[in-house]
From TrEMBL:
<keyword id="KW-0808">Transferase</keyword>
<dbReference type="GO" id="GO:0008168">
    <property type="term" value="F:methyltransferase activity"/>
</dbReference>
<dbReference type="InterPro" id="IPR029063">
    <property type="entry name" value="SAM-dependent_MTases_sf"/>
</dbReference>
<keyword id="KW-0489">Methyltransferase</keyword>
<dbReference type="GO" id="GO:0032259">
    <property type="term" value="P:methylation"/>
</dbReference>
<feature type="region of interest" description="Disordered">
    <location>
        <begin position="1"/>
        <end position="26"/>
    </location>
</feature>
<feature type="compositionally biased region" description="Basic residues">
    <location>
        <begin position="1"/>
        <end position="10"/>
    </location>
</feature>
<protein>
    <submittedName>
        <fullName>SAM-dependent methyltransferase</fullName>
    </submittedName>
</protein>
Amino acid sequence: MTPTLVRHHPHDPNTASAPATDAGARARDWAEIQERMLVPLYEAAYERLEVGSATRLLGLGCGSGLALLIAASRGAQVTGVEADPDRVSLARERLLADAPRSGSSTEDTPDQPTRLYEGASAEVCDGSAPAYNLVTAFEPLGCASGDSEGLAVALESAIPLAERGSAVVLAGWGPPERCATSAVLRVASRLTETLRATGGRGWRPARRDDLEDVASRAGLKPDGSGRVACPFGYADMDSAVRGLLSTGLFDAAVRATDPAQVEKELTEALHPHVRGDGTVWMSNVFRYLIARRP
């Protein structure tokens, strides 16, 4: 069964130019606009690993739950961990419509084996679930300074919860020359020069060995990789701006300048990608690495 993706409905045109600075609004923009851009990546990894009813999946940085929903539709039992409380709430709406919306975790029941936890690492999991045989980290590496270090810490807490030999899937941006969005993300790099000079974290280009380096630091053994086309397509400029801002990749730029400046320069960078019908389209290639727990 293919899950239904939520279609974004444009915001009021009178307020469309205002960046989504409210955390709840940004999480909603992520769920309704941006998260679906990586569906080809999720599906490619699941198909290669034959995700199905025998799969017990732990998703790190599960966002608002779309990747978990796709795995669950294939019969997998899924557990998600996400640091953003607003995204966790949206994941509960998608996966646990009848579950409580508050609290740091959602316990499973005989009818609903799905679990969702709010936190930055798998340490928040209660440990009563059977050992996982698949761990995924689909938030793409390579664009945010320090993201490799953060994932390495998350993996340290997750790997002990998985069976030996279990697959761990890491995802990352492909080569900048094959990702049209890279040119747009450079806006964040330019605007965060001052922040970086004072020790802050901003955007950086993806590196060829990002995924392999993290796997090595986590003590994992590479067991295959792949590349997947994940074009970013938006109904209009407003959707494109809101979707990209919801990724968090421009947060440092907002801190270094101001939201209006970031939105203005982001809009200018997106203009070359506007089609005649007003839609915005950028071709991208993402990588995934499959590694194994020894």
